[in-house]
Amino acid sequence: MASKTKRPGTGREAGEEDARWAAVVARDKAFDGKFVFSVASTGIYCRASCPARRAKRENVAFFDTCAEAEALGFRACRRCRPNELRRDAHHALLVAEACRRIESAEEMPDLAQLAATSGISRFYFHRMFKKVTGVTPKAYALAHRRNAVRRELRRSPSVTAAIYGAGFNSSSRFYENAAEQLGMTTKTFRSGGENEVLTFAIANSSLGSVLVAASEKGIAAILIGDDAEKLTAEFKKLFPKAEFVTGDRRFAKSLRRVIAKVESPETPFELPLDIRGTAFQQRVWRALQNIPLGTTATYTEIAQKLGNPKAVRAVARACATNSLAVAIPCHRVVRANGEMAGYRWGTERKRRLLERESSARGKSPRSR
Question: What does each C-alpha distance from 94 to 80, 87, 237 come to in angstroms?
Fold first, then answer.
């Protein structure tokens, strides 16, 4: 078997060198942080996406780290700054740290405190936080405490103890928006959702049976399957103590709008949603809703977007627990190698949904 050719003095295979050069030619940001390249004629080194005028191939050498390039006397490019974090990565780290401070604080840090800790202005911090997470710092803090109250209500001896245990410094502040924060009253929540009314109906689609359920707040579940009875059982397991009502003609309009979204993904989805989950799950689901029609993202990309690149498995679990098929497009998330990966309602349905979205957008599914 023939041995693989390596570039003299690099220890790397020629194919790897060629791939890196192709990334430089394309100014591909996906390779930033994976290697740097030096230019012998200028004495500088750059990241793969550097927008400066392209150097001649014979003057270019590749290094795995900035330190290796600097050890040979090359200076960091002042334009692309390869020895610094990319702005979006830096912002993600700042936001991740702010989220940790919010979650660990006994009282919600005000915007000025969060911004000062990050070393930037209040206005810029607020805009940066919302861009990365999809919500304002205040909304994130309220979502975190709302889920803390959910946990405390299940184990505390009283509602008051649960409220203070979750970090609210007065019960009145919590009760002002209790129903909005829990999706129901505290009494109903403590009884496991007992007396909550959910309307549901099932219709056929080209992907199988589709169950749609709604609370007073909005659509609470969209489930897809092959068997209507199994779908109904799955739905009732999600809301074990709720009261179920079969949808009437009025509800049929909502059902038809969901089916239209399944069949024609370009159809706008304007129905209100009753999204239930932890603060982290809701951050993941908001990120999924921001993936453009006809494209995909990887679990790693979503984790990085949330400022927590190590949370890939947690992102995957959040996708797997999504109960709002199509409305929250978890089918648009794929593995790093582009494979379909798992899907709560079957990989074949996932493939068909992506094909439809691709057709609607006029190009094949691809990673962003």
Answer: 20, 11, 39
Residues with catalytic function? 46, 330
pLDDT bin (cut points 50, 70, 90) of residue 362 is low
What span, in angstroms and rounded, lies between the C-alpha atoms of 45 and 74?
6
pTM over 0.85: no
Please check whether residues 307 and 357 belong to one and the same domain: yes
Overall average pLDDT of the 110-126 stretch = 85
Domain end point (choices 76, 100, 115): 76
* Structure token pair of residue 360: 């609607």
* Residues 130 and 162 both lie in one domain: no
280-318 pLDDT, tens digit per residue, is 788 899 999 999 998 999 999 998 888 888 888 889 988
